[in-house]
């Protein structure tokens, strides 16, 4: 899923005006006018346009529910890691070739296990198919010592490396996040466990 709207705090115009003091009653009337700048709501550029009051501007955001039933080995469903789920949330800045991530895993079990540098990835693969990792993210770590709840959050910028060689070349080499925005359905995100090597949970970006 892709969203590109944001609440345009910068465009909220607050106007407070006090009416003259009414001596006879000692009351002050306070009138508060809130003007919403409708331009800021206009379409896909609203988010990027809000840049002045935010540290990171995203050209797109992707919120992915990852589940075991989407995992395949080749094209064969494996069932993944039963009971595990993941929320993989991404914000992309195409101009900076940057991707910010906030990944939560529930009920992950086993060890993180992958030939790549980490076991948490975005792969170039259509629904029901397999394909090479393009970005490797830090593996989520237990939150407050709770192994059942894990999280990782941060940002990565290209050039990307995954540690996986395809025809002698790192599968992240030359990758640009614009490819994800051009065709999110061609990408999936997942995490691999020693108990479910083809993937514990997986979700398609669109
Ligand atoms: C994936 O499938 C291949 C056969 O296509 C098999 O050789 C391999 O062991 C499977 N991998 C896992 C981890 O199940
Ligand atoms: C990650 O998302 C969760 C909500 O799913 C939020 O509570 C948490 O603060 C976020 N982490 C960061 C670093 O923004």
Automatic annotation (TrEMBL):
Keyword line: Signal
Q: Does the keyword Signal apply?
A: yes
Kindly indicate where the leader peptide sits in this chain.
1-18
Q: Does the keyword Signal apply?
A: yes
Q: Please report the stretch or stretches of sequence annotated as the CHRD domain.
A: 60-206
Name used for this protein in its record? CHRD domain-containing protein
């Amino acid at each position: 899923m892709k969203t590109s709207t944001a609440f345009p705090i910068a465009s909220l115009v607050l106007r407070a005006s006090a009416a003259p003091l009414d001596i006879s009653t000692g009351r002050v009337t306070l009138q508060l006018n809130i003007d919403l700048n409708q331009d800021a709501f206009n379409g896909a550029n609203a988010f990027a346009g809000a840049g002045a009051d935010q540290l990171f501007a995203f050209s797109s955001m992707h919120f992915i529910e990852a589940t075991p039933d989407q995992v395949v080995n080749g094209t064969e469903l494996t069932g993944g890691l039963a009971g595990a789920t993941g929320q993989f949330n991404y914000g992309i800045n195409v101009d900076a070739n940057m991707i910010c991530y906030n990944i939560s895993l529930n009920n992950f079990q086993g060890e993180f296990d992958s030939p790549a540098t980490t076991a948490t990835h975005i792969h170039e693969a259509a629904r029901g198919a397999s394909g090479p990792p393009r970005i490797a993210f830090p593996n989520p770590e237990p939150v407050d010592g709770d192994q059942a709840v894990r999280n990782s959050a941060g940002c990565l910028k290209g050039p990307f490396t995954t540690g996986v060689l395809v025809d002698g070349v790192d599968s992240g080499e030359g990758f640009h996040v614009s490819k994800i925005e051009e065709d999110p359905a061609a990408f999936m995100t997942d995490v691999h466990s020693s108990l479910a090597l083809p993937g514990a949970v997986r979700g398609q970006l669109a």
